[in-house]
Amino acid sequence: MMPETMVPGAPPLVAHVLNFRGRIIPLADLRLAFGMPVTGATLDSRIVVIELDLDGEATLIGLRTDKVHEVATFHANTSEDAPVVGLRWRRDLVRALIRHEGDDIVVLPDLEAIFLNLAHGDAAARSIH
User: Where is the signal peptide (predicted)?
Assistant: First the structure.
């Protein structure tokens, strides 16, 4: 795992930064956004770096993961909107549910919604812990 630096006063969701190829980028733990308990790093833990368009600006963000099973391409015809009831997480943070390899379901988070709320100073997003 890459060395992390804690940022005092930063929102819990992005309480750390790391050096990624010479650029300092925020490190997010999406467990906090979805109300899940935070777990420590294991041998399987990874950091996946993504690029999001936030208000017209390309932004690199590191996502802390428990494990990476595979890199896959999903097709629009295999996705459905999140149900109104029966979902464990806030519906506005879930972009879609995707059928993958038979009966498996992948929850696709709405990363733009999560991080735009944080970037715009949304009090609820800042208090995620």
Answer: none
